[in-house]
Amino acid sequence: AQSVTQLDSHVSVSEGTPVLLRCNYSSSYSPSLFWYVQHPNKGLQLLLKYTSAATLVKGINGFEAEFKKSETSFHLTKPSAHMSDAAEYFCVVSASGGSNYKLTFGKGTLLTVNP
Amino acid sequence: GAGVSQSPSNKVTEKGKDVELRCDPISGHTALYWYRQSLGQGLEFLIYFQGNSAPDKSGLPSDRFSAERTGGSVSTLTIQRTQQEDSAVYLCASSYYLQGDTQYFGPGTRLTVL
After folding, report:
1. How far is CA B113 from CA B4, B67, B81, B91, B109, in A?
2. How far lies B12's CA from each of B7, B16, B26, B57, B110, in Å?
3. Per-residue pLDDT at A34
4. Tell me: the pLDDT tens digits for B47-102?
5. In the predicted structure, residue A62 carries a pLDDT above the cut 90
């Protein structure tokens, strides 16, 4: 079985400073990993996806994430936060093999951006 | 193009009533998924469809929950005899392929059971 742990339930940064949202995963096989963002009263939007092609994955809105197998981590970063980045972020892993349609979500990290 | 749409956006019902939640996937997507997002449990997988078939119903929390999909497109999630613990946001997603493809989510239906 696979699982995801988001290490911070809430992260607060100032506008213009770097963002780091931490995620550790557990999976028996090479996982597919995702970061989704959810703005208030909106649906989940895919930020980026890792599927073993490259360990550094670039996503939308300047976000990127690095897959580190030795650390079983997939942390999300952005060099400079914007006010519009304030939202909840979910780290997600898909099951392996024949069940890799089933997504397992972390508990989420609420990002607050202060002016 | 148009994304995944869900209706209603909000539903308030009384305990014991039945409710139907609708999902319109992205045109051409063969796979459709239902998830539930609640305060206590986070985001949980409920069921998926490949075409009109639902091979995996393992996430449905009880036999009061059922879902169907017709014409390989629209899906309906039905909750019978609703309970207060059913209060949650119900999210639908679709993908072009089933295995390992990106899932695109709708805005959700917020269900409140009084």
Report:
1. 24, 19, 10, 17, 13
2. 13, 12, 26, 25, 8
3. 93
4. 999 889 888 888 999 999 999 999 889 999 999 999 999 999 999 999 987 666 78
5. yes
State the Rg of chain A over Cα.
14
Tell me which DSSP letter residue A40 carries.
Answer: T
What's the rounded Cα separation, in Å, for the pair A23 and B100?
Answer: 20
> Is residue B34 within 8 Å of B20, Cβ to Cβ?
no
Question: Within an 8 Å CB–CB cutoff, is residue B35 touching chain A?
Answer: yes
DSSP three-state, residue A45: strand
Tokens of B42: 């986070």
Find chain B residues with C-beta within 8 A of A108's C-beta. Answer: 42
CA atoms within 13 A on the CB side of A102: 18
How does pLDDT run across A73-113, given as a tens digit for each residue?
A: 999 999 999 999 999 999 999 876 666 678 889 999 999 99
Mutate to test the interface with A, among B6, B7, B95, B105 (most CBs of A within 10 A): B105
- Interface residue of A50, A101, A107, A109 to substitute, partner B, most B CBs within 10 Å: A101
Question: Residue A106 and residue B42: Cβ atoms within 8 Å?
Answer: yes
B96 touches chain A (CB under 8 A): no
